[in-house]
Amino acid sequence: MNAVVVRATPESVPQLVASATSLFAEDGGQRDPWMDLTWPHREGPAYYADLVRQSDSLCLLALSPAGTAIGHLIGRIRRADPLRPGAVAGVLESMRVDPAHRATGVGTALADEFFAWARESGANQISVTAYSANESALSFYRGRGFTPFELTLHAPL
Fold it and tell me: What sign results for the dihedral spanned by CA atoms 114, 119, 123, 128?
């Protein structure tokens, strides 16, 4: 791997927004006709600026040797609730690696950092949501120990 994984700062929020914008276009934009592709540009700066300041969220950037963002990961801790009182989940909310840097260890480095942070934050499980048609993402997550837990089905009206 020829990249370094760092925690995002308020100054690096524009890099998070740029990576999220690419994720929306590459993933949701290809698989969800209702996805608002303008959300990262419109709402992302405030959303990610808030996340980088919260102790129950993790914002990571993968940087090339030149300092260019080539990926990101957003994680959160979801505390126990009355329906699942023993569950504290590390939720992998968003992850992307630039296509030119996939299969080089960047995604694994991001995920490993997230797993360590989730454990340190008291999580006893981790979760991620991915489009069922995104076979490469599903393969990546399965390779890191994720297994199906719930299934959401959609039907047009």
Answer: positive
Q: Are strands 89-97 and 125-128 parallel, antiparallel or unpaired?
A: parallel
- CA–CA distance, 125 with 87 (Å, rounded to integer): 7
Q: What CA–CA distance (Å, rounded) separates 99 from 30?
A: 15
CB atoms within 10 A of CB 61: 23
The neighbouring-strand residues paired with 75 are 58, 92
pLDDT at residue 1 greater than cutoff 80: no
User: In whole numbers, what is the pLDDT of the chain averaged over residues?
Assistant: 95
Among left, alpha and beta (phi > 0; psi -120 to 50; other), residue 67 is left
Q: Which residues lie below 8 Å from residue 142, measured CB to CB, with a gap of 6+? A: none
Asked if residues 8 and 20 have their Cβ atoms less than 8 Å apart, the reply is no
Distances (CA, A) of 3 to 64, 65, 104, 144: 5, 6, 9, 20
